[in-house]
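Batch manifest, entry 17 of 40.
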Amino acid sequence: MRLSILCFTFGVWLLQQQGALPIALALSVLAGFGAVLLALAALARRLRIAAAVGAFLLGFAWAGGMAHWRLADALPEANEGRDIVVVGVVNGLPQRLDHGLRFNFKVEQADFKVPAQLSLAWYRGWRREADEEGTAERSQSAVPDIHAGERWRLTLRLKRPHGNLNPHGFDYEAWLLEAGIRATGYVRPASDNARLEAFVATPSTLVEHLRESIRARFLRILPDAPYVGILIALTVGDQRAIDNEQWQLFSRSGITHLMSISGLHVTMFASFAYALLLWLWRRSPALMLRLPAQKAAVVGGFLAAFGYCLLSGFAVPAQRTLYMLAVVALALWTQRVLSASRVLALALLLVLLLDPWAVLAAGFWLSFGAVGVLFYLGGGRLGKAHWLAEWGRAQWAVTVGMIPALLLLFQQFSLVSPLTNALAIPLVSFVITPLAMLAAAIPPLGFLLVLAHWITAGMMAFVAWLADFSWAVWQQHAPPVWALLLALAGSAWLLLPRGFPARWLGAVLFLPLLYVPPARPPTGEATLTLLDVGQGLAIHVQTASHDLLYDTGPIFSLEANSGDRIIVPYLRAKGVSRLDGMVISHQDNDHAGGAKSVLDAVPVGWMINSLPFEHELSAVPVETLSCYDGQSWQWDGVLFEVLHPQVAQYDAPAKVSNTLSCVLRVSNAYGSVLLTADVQSLSEQAMLARHSSRLRADVLLAPHHGSRTSSTPKFIAAVAPKDVVFPVGYRNRFHHPHAETINRYLASGARLHRTDLEGALTLRIVAGGVVIEAEREIRRRYWHGQ
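Output type: C-alpha cells
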C-alpha cells in the first residue's frame, strides 16, 4: 500500500510538471489502465509492480482530470479589462492594504461570464471636492468596511491569473490555481456599488465570520501590541497579520513553521479534547453503557481537530495532521493496529485526492518531510532514552533531514534554529497557543491575551538576539539536482541508529550540496537577466567573476518592493553574495523602487546613478558617483560603456527625470546589448548626434518600455537591433508597449520579446551572437496564461 501511494504521489507530481494538459480522452485511457492493473494486483498479491504502475497512472490521470475541471472555470479573454457588474458574497478574511482592501469574492451572478471565485482589491481613489469658498481640491475617497459573509453588487475590472515569473522565483499563478481563484481584479468607482445583505449564512461564511470576529477582538484588546499578529496567526491562521520584518526574523531564526497552525498545534488541541472528553465520559455510567469512553473520546478529539483546522484556514500542515488523526481515530474505533508509516501514507493520499496541487507548495514537502524524518528516526531502534535526549535527537534529525529541502526551496537555513526551536516549540505549542485559544473561545477570558503577548515578547527578544548574529543564517545558491539527491542520501545515512558503522560518511555526501559553486559565464562572455518585475526594470549582468545590477524595479506597497520580493531572492539563488556595481538609471520608482532593499541585503562595491538630488537610498555606505557619458570599464573581457547623460545636463535640471536616464552598452567580441532605461525622443536625438556609430547593438532594451514618446525611426535605424525586449507589466495602465512603437520595430525586421508574456528574459552573449531564453518557455506549465 505504501509503495502504491508513493507512486500515486509521483503521478500527481509529474502531471503538475507538464507544459500542456493531456486531453481528457488520454487521461481516461490512463485511468482505465491504472484501474485494471490495481485490480489485477488485488487478485494476485505478488504483483506489486503492477500495483505501483497502476497507482502511478491513476495519480497522473486524477490530477489531470481535476486540472481540466478547474481550468474550465476561466475568464474569457474578451472579458478582461471591461466593466462587469457582479453580485456575490465575501467568502474570506478581508485584508487591509496600505491603500485599500483585498478580499475573496464568490460570484453568484454576473452580466458577463466570469469565474466563480475571484480575488479583488478595493483601492482608495481620488475625487474632486469643493470647499466652502467653492475652490476645487482633491481628497481620497474612503473604502467601505467589508466583512466576511456580506452580499455585494460591484462593478469590477478583471484579468486572468497572471504573475511575475523569474528564475527560482515564486509562481503566483500556481498559487492562484491551488486556491481556486481563477481571476483577479479591482472594484471600479460606480454609483450602484452597494451592500445587498449584511450576512449570508453558509457553512463557509459562518466559519469566516467567526475568524474575522476573533481577529477583530484580538486587535481591540491589543491595539498597538507588536506581536498581536502572531497571536492572530496562531489562532485563526491569518498569517498576513504578521508584518514583513517579523517574517524576516522568523526566517533567520528558523521558527517560521511555528507561525502557522502547525501539526503540533492541531495534535495538542485534539489531545486536550480527547483527554477532557474521556474524563467526562467516564463520570457517567449511562454513557459508558451506550458507548465505550475511549471511542467517544476519539470522536471528540477528531471533531475538535477538525474545528480547529477550519478555524485556521485549512492549510496543508493542518490538513496532513487532521487526516493522520482521522486514520488513527478510525483504527482505534475499529480496533485495528496501523504502523506510523501507514498512517502517514494514508494522510498523504487523502491530501492529494482533495488537493492535487498541494505538491506545488513548499509547505507540503516540508510538512510531510519533517514527519517522515521523525518516523524514520524512531523506526527500528531498541530501547528508550531520557525524554531530554529524545527531544535533542528529534531536533537534530529534523535539522539535518530538512537542510536539503530548505536549500532547494529557499537557498538558506538557520544555524541557530536548534536553539530557537528548543525554546519556541514548547512555549508556542503548550503556553502561547493554548492561552490565545482560550481567549478566542471564551470572550470573558480576553485578559489572557495580555499574558500570551507578554510571553511572546520575551520569547521574541531571545529569538531576535540569536538571529542578530552575523553567522545565524547559512545562505547559498540553489543546489543542482544531483547534489540534492546525494545530500538526501547523506541525511538518511547520518540518521541511522547508533552503532551503525561509518555514519560519518553521510556528512561527506553533504559536501557537494554546500560547496559546489554555481555556474558562471566563461571569460569573455556575459549573461544579462532581464527580471520580470512587472511595470519596471531590473537587470542582472554577470561576467566570469563580476556582477552588476542595472536598476532595481518598482515599489509594490509600503511593505513590499521588487528588491526584497524578487531581486534579493534571485541573487541568493544564483549564488551572488556581493554586487561589484549597481547602476540606478534615474529616480523613477519603477526603476529605483527596490534599491534600498537590495543595498540593505547585499554588499555593493560602488554605485553610479543620475539622481539629481541627495537621495538617501540606504543607511549602508556605498561609494556613489554620478552617471555620465564617457564612463567605461572592463570586466573579464566584457566592455561596459555609459552613453548618456552628459555631465552638463546635471547643471540644468530637467522637468522629466527620464531625460537623465543612464544608458549603458554591454559588449564583447561576440555581440552587444544596449540598455536605455527611460530615454525619450530628445535624448535619442542627442545620442545620435554624439554616438551614431556606437549605438549599434544586437539587442535593444526598448526605451521607456516601448512608449509612444520614444523609439524614433532614426534611433531604431542607428541601433539596428536583431532583437528588442520590452520590460512591461501585464495589462499595465500605461498601455506599454504602444502599437505605433511595436509597428516601427516590426518594420525594421527585429524580433520582439516582452516580459509580461515571456517572463524573465536571459540574454547570453556567447560565441555566435546573443541567445535569448524566456523563463515562461523554460518553466512552461499548463496553467500559465490560463
